[in-house]
Amino acid sequence: MFSKILIANRGEIALRVIRACQSLGIATVAVYSEADAQAPHVLAADEAFLIGPPPVPQSYLNAAKILEVAQSCGAQAIHPGYGLLSENADFAAAWEAVEITFIGPSPKAIAAMGDKIAARAMMAKAGVPVVPGSGPIVDPADALAFAEQIGYPVMVKASAGGGGIGMQLVETPAELEKAVKMCGARAKTYFGSDVIYLEKAILKPRHIEVQILADHFDNVVILHERECSIQRRHQKVIEECPSPGVSPEQRRFLTERAIAATRAIGYANAGTLEFLMDADGNFYFLEMNTRLQVEHPVTEMVTGLDIVAWQIRIAAGDRLTFSAAPLNGHAIECRLYAEDPVTFMPQPGTLTRFEPPAGEGLRHDVGVVSGSVVTPFYDPMLGKLIAWGSTRTEAIERLRDALARYEIAGIKTNLPLLQTIVDSPAFAAADLDTGFISRMRQTVTA
Ligand code: MV4
Fold this sequence. Notes:
It contains 15 helices and 20 strands. By secondary structure, it is α+β, with helices and mostly antiparallel strands. It folds into 3 domains: 4-103, Rossmann fold; 132-200, ATP-grasp fold, A domain (Dna Ligase, domain 1), CATH 3.30.1490; 206-443, ATP-grasp fold, B domain (D-amino Acid Aminotransferase, Chain A, domain 1, 2-Layer Sandwich). The strands form 5 sheets. Strands 13-12-9-10-11-14-19-17 form an 8-stranded antiparallel beta sheet, with helices on both faces. It has a 5-stranded parallel beta sheet with strand order 3-2-1-4-5. α4 runs antiparallel to α5. The model has no long low-confidence stretch (mean pLDDT 96). Bound molecules: ligand MV4. Ligand MV4 is lined by residues 131, 155, 163-164, 199-202, 205, 207, 231, 234, 274, 276, 286-287, 434.
C-alpha cells in the first residue's frame, strides 16, 4: 500500500481524495496555485506545494511541474481527481517513467475510450447496444448518405470529443453539410482532431450511467446506475442513484453488458459507461468515462462503498473483496454552482457566509468555507449536497429541507434553480429526460 499520495486537483474533489487517503492511513500532498494558497484542500493535506500562478495551464494543467513535485516529495502515487488531466492518456503514461503509480485505468484504456468511434466499435463487439452510428466522416457527401440511411434527426459528434462538446443535432439535409463542417472545425480547435461521426439522434432520452469497479485480477463489480438527465447544456445539475426509470430486470441487463464490456477492453480501476435510454426503455451506449465522476457520492450512499478508497486499493494491487454491491435506499445529489440562477453566468466573489445544513442522511462534499474567495480561474462548482433516504420520497424531503436551510451569502448561486427543480411535481413524479430543465416554465427568481 502507498505511504504518500499526491492529489493533482483542487476544490471539493481534492478534499474528497484526501479523506479517502486518511481513511487508509496514507499521507497526502496537495498542489496549489497562487489563488489557492489558503484553500481548504491545501490546509487539509499533510504537505502542500505551490505549482504556479492562478491560470490553469500554468498550474493544475502544468503536468511537468506536478511530476516534478511528486518526485521531489517522494509520493508513490498520484490521484488526478476528475476534469483537468484525469483523462489525459499522455499524462497517465508519464508516471510509468518516474515509477509513480497513476491511480486510474491504464493509459491504453484511457486512449481507447477517448476515441469515441473506436470505443463504440469495441462496445458493439462486446455485445453492448450502441446508438446506430457511422464511422469517421470526412466528406459531407458521406454524411448525407449515412443520414439518409438511418433517417433524420441525426447527431454530429467529434470522435476525440465527449461530454457533448461540439455536438450538434441536425434535422434536415440542408443543415447537415454546415453542421459537419462546423463540428469538424470545432473538434480540430478543441481536441486537435477533426474526425467526426454521425449517430441517430435519440429524442427525449434519459441519461443513465453505470458505475464500474474492476481490479487487476479480472474481478469486475457493477455499482448500479445513476440517473443524470437533469442537465443544462451538458452540465449535470442533479443526479441520483438508483435511476427511478430503471427496473430490476433492466438493471440486470445493464450490469451483465457492463461486465462484458469491462472485460472486453481489459479495464481496471473505476469507470463509468454512459447510456441513453429511449422512451421504449432501450439502452444505447454513448461513451465511457475513464475517471472518477463528480456524482460518485450518490452511488457511495446507497452501496456503503468508498469508491475513491477502492481506486487507491486497486492501484496498489489489492483484489476486490466483494462480487456484488448492495443497493440500499435512494440518494440524490445537487451540484452547487457559483453562477447567476437566471443568466447562468459564473459569479466570482467572496463567500461571506457558507454554512451547509446539518441533518439526517445529508452529505456535503464542498470545496469552500465561509470567507473563501471564488475566482474566475476555475470551474464554478462550489460543491455538492447529497441526501439519502430509505425511499426516493424521503430523499427528496430531506433534500428540499436542506436546500431551504443552506446558508450562502456574498455571491449568487444556482440554489434557487435547485429548489425550483426539487420542489417541482415533475421531479417528484420522476418525469425525467434531458429536456427537463429546458421545459421548466417557471422563471427562476434570483
Ligand atoms: C446524444 C443524445 C441524443 N442522441 N446522442 C450529451 C453529452 C454526451 N454524453 C452525449 N450526449 C448526448 N448524446 C444521440 N445520438 C443526447 C445527449 C444528451 C444531451 C443532448 C442535448 C442536451 C442535453 C443532453 C444531456 C444528456 C445527453
